[in-house]
Every structure is written in structure tokens, then in C-alpha cells.
Amino acid sequence: MQLDFTGKRVLVAGGSRGIGRSIALGFAAAGADVGICARGAETLEQTRQEIAAHGHATHAASCDLADGPAVGRWVAEAAAALGGLDILVNNASGFGSTDDEEGWAKGLSVDVMATVRASHAAIPLLKQAGGGSIVNVSSISGFHASTRSAPYAAVKAAVIQYTTSQALTLAPENIRVNCVAPGSIEFPGGSWERRRLAGEALYSNVLAKIPFKRMGKPEEVANVVLFLASPLAQWVTGQTVCVDGGQLLS
To answer: Is 119 a catalytic residue?
Structure first.
């Protein structure tokens, strides 16, 4: 079945590279008007041009998602540029891995609070549209203990939990909220590519635990995000879908 988002207005936080880029391009290819934000100006503009090539309205703005007021401004300005809002994707991560003040601050400020703040800014706009969809991006790290990146695992677990609370709270407003939990995803310039090129043992160790013996692709996560935001999933809310090739099973 072909997903059609013609006339829909979509915002993707952290939408300039990797998973976020694939999500944004997936919506654009399906007919949506798409707004993105990220910190890196060069990749942001490159992705904006790729979105615009699909012939739909687009908006791109540099935004530090750890900055609360900046998040609210981005949502408001992007939605105004697109003429409203139907779908919000909270994708960004601070990648806080070290179990210290800095690691926790990165994870809490971006993975958790940017999700909260962008959602709060988007909800009145989704209500104006008569309802809509929020999709949060977590990680399979949120399902198990981690000795390597405890803060990252903890904040991703918080995103999964917050998704369920959002879903129950917003159902009366005809707003569905779901979550995807990717496994190890490799893309140009991403952390797994860097580890592979550096010959790190961690890469081969993780790869050996994935039943399909390969890393995931960003578009494979994007496909599930689009499904959850589409009318095909209109009776699905409060759920977290693992997109990991069975990695969590091993």
C-alpha cells in the first residue's frame, strides 16, 4: 500500500542527517510539506534542498535542541511557514554516554526535554488541525541495562515511558503518539561507520549479535515512522516499535 501524505505538514527535529534525514525525505517523497531543524548549517541546507526537490514546501532552521526557548520558536516558525502542523517527529539525541554530569546533561536536555518542549509547542497546532500524530524516536538501549552508556539508555527509556503518557493524555484530542526504537543503524558520517572504519572491536561484536548480520539502514527506520504517522496506523497509539533486525532478541 502506498503511503500518501499530500497536504500534510510535518516537522522533524534533528532532520538533517542519518535517521532524521531519511524520515524527512520519506515524508517529502510521499507528498508532505516538511520542516527540519539541526545544529549543522551545511548538512541542514543540503537536506533542505533534497526535500525541496520533491516539489513541496519546506522550512529549515538551525536550532540547538538543548535550548528550550529555541525549540518553541522553531516549532512555531516552521509551522507558520508550512501553514500549520499535522505530524511531529522528535528524533534528535544528545548522545550522552558518559556516566557523569556532562553525559546526563546532554541526554536529559535533548533526548528528554527537547521531546517534551517540541511536543508542548506542537500540541496546540495539532489541535487546530483537528488532530494529528507525534512519533518519538528512542532506542533499543532503553530496554536493557548498559555498562557502556548508562545515561543514554536511561533517557531513551524515559522517552518510551513518556510516549505512553502522551498517548493516553492526547487521545481525546485525536492525537496519536507512538515511538520507534532503532537498533544499530549505520550511515555516512555516523558513529557506527566511524567505528567500522577505525576497526573498533565494538563494531564487530555488535554486528555478530544481529541475527541478519548487518547494521540497519536509516530508511528502514523511516519506513516505520511513516507507517505510524499514517492513516494505516489510525488505531495504534502508545506503542513502541523496535526496528532492529532482531538485535534486541540476542
So the answer is: no
pLDDT tens profile 108-157: 999 999 999 999 999 999 999 999 999 999 999 999 999 999 999 999 99
Among this protein's residues, is 16 annotated catalytic?
Answer: no
Active site residue 152: yes
- Separation between Cα atoms, residue 210 and residue 213, nearest integer Å: 5
Task: Tell me if residue 35 falls in helix, strand or coil.
Answer: strand
Which residue in the list 22, 152, 162, 184 is annotated as catalytic? 152
Closest Cα to residue 243, out of 154, 143, 161, 107? 143
Question: Which residue out of 138, 141, 184, 230 is catalytically annotated?
Answer: 138
pLDDT digits (tens, 9 = 90+) for 108-121: 999 999 999 999 99
Pairing of strands 9-13, 58-62: unpaired
For the chain, the straight-line distance linking the first and the last C-alpha, in angstroms and rounded, comes to 31
Q: Which domains does the chain have, with CATH numbers?
A: 9-187+217-249 (3.40.50.720)
| Nearest alpha-carbon partner for 9 in 119, 89, 63, 73 | 89
- Which one is catalytic: 97, 119, 139, 184? 139
CA 49 remoteness from chain centre: 20
Please tell me which residue in 106, 156, 184, 203 is annotated as part of the active site: 156
Catalytic (active site) residue 139:
yes
